[in-house]
Amino acid sequence: MEPRDPTGAIAAAEGATAQRIALAAGGLELPGHNAFGEPLACDRGTDVAALVRQCAQAAAEGERVALVARAVDLAAARSELARVAARGLGVVVHAITEPGSPDAPCSQAGISPALALGDLPWGMLFAAGADAVDLSLVARRAAEDSGCPFFVVHERTHDHRAEPVAAPSRDLVEALLGGPRPPSPPASAATERAFAERAPFALASAMRSLEGLTGRRQDVVERAPSSDAHVALVGLGSIGRAIVGDVDRQRAAGHDVAAVRLVSWRPFPAARLVKTLCRALAIGVLEGVDRPLSAGGPLAEELKAAFADALTWAPGYPGIGRIPRFATGFVSPRHALDARDLDTVVHNLVADERGQRTFVFS
Predict the structure, then answer these.
(1) Which are the contacts of 349, defined by CB distance < 8 A and separation ≥ 6?
(2) How confident is the model at residue 162 (pLDDT cuts 50, 70, 90)?
(3) What is the three-class DSSP state of 26?
(4) Other beta carbons within 10 Å of 171
């Protein structure tokens, strides 16, 4: 089974909107012109930091630019990526993750290298299959509206499902982005925190606008079903997609289960997740990152912190009287979740205190 290749979705989205694309990972089949009829320039190289600098220069000069690179290679460009955020440039970087070889360390495989960039003042969305084109367009609109640059993380997974993608039309991208040229970069006097504070509102606006234009629902959190349940499963990216795709089978088998897929890692929708999950008695968090020396996986840590804020009546959070019981499972980047795995997670959660609090699927 060959890993699913996300480059088709990237080419469809950026080939329609960008004026310049920098490629540090693989080859994209790009058109000669974007949807507005403008020539599409392509820069190729292996020095990711240099490509980030080129993107920043082009964005500062008023071009709509994108970078495509492996997530593991972006670590070498951290300082340049930080400078992009400090300048308030609406750059979009497509970070491609890979399952990794059997002997690769966990920190270099799967989504770990992408989440390692999460401390930068960048937005970060996780695409999962067919929504990659839509989320790429959303990231573009949100970055340009807020001045906060965005990562879109695309996972190469061992998923056999073929999902054809189509390039967005000129009418769609013009209605969403306002025309062939991006707005002028925000004034340099603004701070990184000011750009970041705009990001949640810009992201929500972009998702609503795209939904209004296409009829396809977009949200920072995907939930199924809409009703509350005693047990909830939560995952990010492709893991979240697998959880949501299996929830109907779980419920048909008699389990009172809800599934939540997190789409936006940055900005992290903490209060929204608490509101979505607060009625659950037990929450199973399935992680794509193993951090055995920490207090837990990154998603579980963020969720527990959000519930602690809600319990202590932090502003903006729903009031709660208790925190659900958490169990965290690490899913190896080389392991494809299946129905038996998810049955195991649910049975572990309904076992109350007899269940394990941490477990691994490798």
Answers:
(1) 231, 282, 283, 284, 325, 327, 355
(2) low
(3) coil
(4) 10
Q: In which order are the strands placed within the sheet that holds 282-287?
A: 221-224, 257-262, 231-236, 282-287, 325-331, 358-361
Strands, E assignment, the chain = 20-23, 41-44, 65-70, 92-97, 123-126, 150-155, 221-224, 231-236, 257-262, 264-266, 282-287, 325-331, 358-361
Kindly report the CATH number that applies to the domain delimited by 7-214: 3.40.50.970
- pLDDT mean across residues, the chain: 93
Bridge partner list, 155: 97
- 43/188: higher pLDDT: 43
The pLDDT tens digits of the residues spanning 211-225 come to 999 999 999 999 999
The architecture in CATH of the region 221-361 reads 3-Layer(aba) Sandwich (3.40)
Which token pair is 217?
């629902």
CA nearest 34: which of 135, 140, 128, 127?
Answer: 140
Distance CA 273, CA 94 (A): 25
Residue 260, strand partner residues: 223, 234
| Calpha distance 19→67 (Å, rounded) | 11
Cα gap 55→62, rounded to integer Å? 11
Side chain identity at residue 116, one-letter code: A
CA neighbor of 274 nearest in space, from 326, 201, 196: 326
pLDDT of 2 over the 60 cut: no
Please determine whether the domains at 7-214 and 221-361 fall in the same fold group of CATH.
yes
pTM: 0.96
Burial annotation 89-103 (CB, 10 A radius, 16+ → b, else e): bbbbbbbbbbbbeee
Query: Tell me: the pLDDT tens digits for 104-156?
Result: 888 888 999 999 999 999 999 999 988 999 999 999 999 999 999 999 999 98
| pLDDT score, position 187 | 63
Cα–Cα distance measured from residue 346 to residue 258, given in angstroms and rounded to the nearest whole number: 10
